[in-house]
Amino acid sequence: MEINICILPGDGIGVEIMNQAEKILDRVCLVFGHDADMDYGLIGGAAIDETGSPLPRETIDICQGKDAILLGAVGGPKWDHIDKSIRPEKGLLGIRKEFDLFANLRPAVLFPELRSASLLRPDIAEKGIDLLVVRELTSGIYFGMPRGEEMRQGQRVAYNTMIYSEEEIRRVARVAFEAARRRNFRVCSVDKANVLDVSQLWREVVVETSREYSDVELSHLYVDNAAMQLVRDPSQFDVILTSNLFGDILSDEAAVITGSLGMLPSASMGLKNPALYEPVHGSAPDIAGKDLANPLATILSVAMMLRYSFSMEREAQAIEAAVKKVLGKNIRTGDIMSPGMKQVGCSAMGDLVAAEIG
Ligand code: IPM
Ligand code: MG
Q1: Backbone φ/ψ region at 157: left (φ over 0), alpha (ψ -120 to 50), beta
Q2: Is the per-residue pLDDT at 144 higher than 90?
Q3: CA of 93, closest atom in ligand 1
Q4: Mutate which of 69, 92, 268 for ligand 1 pocket (most atoms within 8 A of beta carbon)
Q5: What are the backbone angles phi and psi of residue 352, rounded to the nearest 5°?
């Protein structure tokens, strides 16, 4: 079968982690007899430097014909002070919107091998973490209009609009309920319905949608409580369904309690191809180009891509098992290093995982 994708390395550690993704894909193709057709495109700061735009038309055109997009990371201090309409992050927000990738799946799993790296108290970490954040990705306060900055009565004011239509809520809610059916049949919807109108509609529509999924148990939490529950007892969660901004914040929290942001993959999907896969972490400019980055989040994103975009469950599991084997051999990158372990760089980690596949 043909694995037809576009790779967008982006900025910072993006290039080195994408090299590892390619290694893994080459290995999967060899072992399982597939062909990979990989094209490349520019996004973020790298695209600004070359073309003046964080998401050039050419990149969209290249992605258009593909089944999936694999993205590294965008942003860095070099572009912090440029015109805010062309910031690197606009490239990421733009590609999500362009392909209507409204459902962002961010699994947070505490690998037993990394339990000592978790920031949680040992008796809490002991209970395990295996949850999935389903974050709405193309609406809410990130994209709502009106937005802007202006003068009012001699003062600068700035504003954004948190807005959802019922269809936008319904379609992402369905993704969460469907995901729960492949997991532990529980969805916790997170909102701020005690204060925000937009959250009241969110809750109503989620409750309505839940009637199509009577086998899935639905609960609700206010976002402040959810943030607290995530550190108090993350083992209580299965699927967390939430809006764009709350999901941005809670998914970082969910990620860091597992021990390292460097371990967590994500998928962003719409109703048709291409879907987009990327590590949850950012471009880490401080360690870029030093062969220090942890490529495992990217490698696990490749597994998610094969599973969801190509229905290659065996191949996905082979990658996930290979990651576990390498961790089981006490091999670590710097971010998940602990005493008694062997530290390796980004490229060596990629080689070691590839070698365990098949
Ligand atoms: C994320 C990131 C992005 C977001 C930024 C880089 C625009 O934090 O993917 O979580 O806020 O969505
Ligand atoms: Mg974020």
Answers
A1: beta
A2: yes
A3: 7
A4: 92
A5: -65, -40
